[in-house]
Design brief:
alpha+beta, Methyl-coenzyme M Reductase, Chain B, domain 2, 4-stranded antiparallel β-sheet, coenzyme-B sulfoethylthiotransferase activity
């Protein structure tokens, strides 16, 4: 493999430079402290929806498995407990039981007037766990104990149903559809493959966590996608590691301002076609591609000696096409069709591979078919990258779906408010690295500039 010393400039969502001449390795999940903090936060997180637990106990609707509605109601198990009103006392009990040392990094935040708790289990407790269930299991059981003790319940007064309000029907079911969740939905029994945990968030979850900020939503989605590639072994070998880091840089973190520049140039009256032409021109101007042959008609066939860098430029162009097209109509439904057209025309216009060597085009053909053609299973925001419709493209599709949903003006039935309301509420207590990933990653990369 040819040795390359990749250096990038990082820009924010307004096109302002954040970090100059940064080694590509400075944004690696293995080195960048902001990305590592994101991963650590996700691994330590648990969310308890106290309002949902209170309502489930009040109605006896316990252990339901439906996505919408409650099919499982148990007459005689109703309990009227003021859980939300006493969230402060319950939070104190949970913190006391899950922390290891009094001054450790345990975090218990009361959200939305006591309706929810956002919790980061202490690192020492998480370190002895074997998987991502560790913080949720410990926090969930602590929450159940806290409710039982605070309201002085016993097996004769209903303590046995508290667990169902928190964990749902688990372990009779492999899912936990009670009041317990985390920053990523991955629950070990439900993840059907290795390296998929960081890909289990719905697109709308990412949109909600970044408050519908398009470029920061794209950044967080791209980071999780490429972290998943490191998790699954897809980034082993220098060639593949560089492939994913370049994709993260140019599509996810607006490296060299490529995405911003193309969007700005096409914002007023651009089309998918004009974005394609600008992507080709930018790649040619930057020396990524060059003309291999000019046919008698004047048509140019291109060549490149750096397919990974070309892929990153194409991924950036694909994102720009989605922002321009879906942004113009303020509707997300056209995101798979936009990706289809962008990739199909671009490969014919250059003679070079499209995004992810055809996997982007192939994935979105299936997505368009099953999301709003014969099947109509859900809108773009309701899919996760781990979904069979999206998982085949390794990191370059989900950020575009996030961008489209950030720009959507309320056309979707499956919108962030419906599917991901919890993330909209807890985003205010999330660490800065989760809410503003572009700036956070750039600042951490700057710290590594002289060391790599």
């Amino acid at each position: 493999m040819k040795e390359r010393n990749d250096v990038i400039d990082l820009y924010d969502e307004k096109g302002d430079m954040l970090a100059e001449a940064i080694p590509l390795q400075a944004i690696s999940p293995l080195r960048n402290q902001a990305i590592r903090e994101m991963i650590k936060t996700i691994k330590r997180s648990a969310i308890i929806n106290l309002k949902k637990a209170e309502q489930a106990l009040k109605t006896g609707a316990l252990g339901s498995e439906m996505g919408v509605g409650e099919e499982c109601q148990i007459p005689g198990c109703e309990m009227d407990l003021d859980i939300v009103a006493n969230a402060g006392a319950i939070a104190e009990m949970i913190k006391k039981w899950i922390q290891v040392d009094e001054d450790d990094d345990t975090v218990v935040e009361i959200v939305d007037g006591g309706e929810m708790l956002f919790i980061l289990a202490p690192t020492k407790r998480v370190d002895v766990g074997s998987d991502l269930a560790n913080p949720r299991v410990n926090v969930g059981i602590a929450a159940a104990h806290a409710i039982i003790e605070y309201f002085n319940l016993s097996p004769f007064s209903g303590s046995e149903v508290i667990k169902a309000a928190i964990f749902g029907r688990y372990p009779q079911s492999i899912t936990t559809k009670g009041a317990l969740s985390g920053l990523i939905p991955a629950w070990p029994p439900t993840v059907d493959g290795v390296g998929l945990n960081f890909r289990t968030n719905m697109v709308n979850d990412i949109v909600a966590m970044t408050n519908k900020n398009t470029m920061n939503g794209v950044a967080l989605s791209s980071i999780l996608e490429h972290v998943a590639m490191f998790d699954s072994g897809d980034a082993i070998h220098p060639a593949y590691e560089r492939y994913h880091l370049l994709g993260l840089a140019y599509q996810g973190l607006n490296a060299n301002n490529v995405v911003y520049d193309i969007v700005k140039a096409n914002g007023a009256d651009g089309t998918i076609g004009s974005v394609i032409m600008d992507t080709i021109k930018r790649a040619e101007d930057d020396g990524v591609i060059s003309v291999k042959e000019t046919l008698p008609s004047g048509f140019k066939i291109y060549k490149t000696d750096d397919a990974s860098l070309w892929n990153s430029y194409v991924a950036a162009g694909q994102l720009a096409a989605v922002i321009v097209n879906c942004g113009a109509m303020r509707a997300a439904q056209g995101v798979p069709a936009t990706i289809n057209e962008f990739n199909d025309i671009l490969k014919l216009a250059t003679g070079l591979p499209d995004v992810d060597y055809g996997r982007g085009l192939g994935t979105t053909i299936g997505t368009a078919f099953y999301s709003h053609n014969i099947y109509g299973g859900a809108g773009p925001g309701a899919f996760s990258p781990a979904n069979p419709l999206l998982r085949h493209c390794r990191g370059f599709i989900s950020p575009c779906f996030v961008a489209a949903m950030c720009l959507d003006a309320g056309t979707q039935m499956f919108n962030p408010e419906l599917t991901s309301g919890a993330f909209l509420k807890i985003r205010t207590v999330l660490p800065e690295v989760m809410r503003n990933p572009i700036k956070s990653v750039a600042e951490s990369a700057l710290e590594l500039k002289g060391a790599l």
